[in-house]
Design goal:
By secondary structure, the protein is mostly helical. The protein has five helices and no strands. Helix 2 packs antiparallel against helix 3 and helix 3 packs antiparallel against helix 5.
């Protein structure tokens, strides 16, 4: 796996922290929370997409794809947070509550579980390969 340089690593960590603060603040319905989460998600996913794996290990490549899917789900959760602020999709009230209202929490949970699993397994597989520095 390509390692991030110091600046990219700081952007990665700050983005993750902004995601956590934004998600937590959204539970209190603070109006700035989706913006903070979205900026953090963009920073986090951009830096994670810079980490590439050029090896031939199929397991790591599969886990890397899972990680990229979780990144897309993080971004989808940001979009759903904005949709949760108001019905700008022009859906009926019943459809809005059924399909949009607070569904970002479910998407975020799925993304976090995928991220946690793939990060742990990639680290384990890289240790088996002997490529961890």
């Amino acid at each position: 796996m390509n390692q991030l340089n110091k600046t990219q690593n700081i952007i990665f960590l700050v983005g993750g922290l902004m995601m956590v603060i934004g998600a937590g603040a959204s539970l209190f319905a603070w109006s700035w929370a989706p913006y903070l989460y979205a900026i953090g998600a963009i920073c986090f996913t951009a830096m994670q997409m810079l980490q590439r794996y050029e090896g031939k290990n199929f397991t790591i490549r599969r886990l890397r794809r899972m990680m990229l899917i979780s990144d897309l789900l993080f971004l989808l959760a940001a979009l759903l947070m904005f949709a949760n602020m108001g019905n700008f999709l022009q859906l009926s009230q019943v459809d809005y509550v059924q399909y949009v209202y607070n569904k970002w929490v479910i998407v975020l949970l799925i993304a976090a579980i995928l991220q946690l699993y793939s990060s742990h397994r990639i680290g384990h597989e890289l240790e088996k390969e002997g490529n961890v520095s």
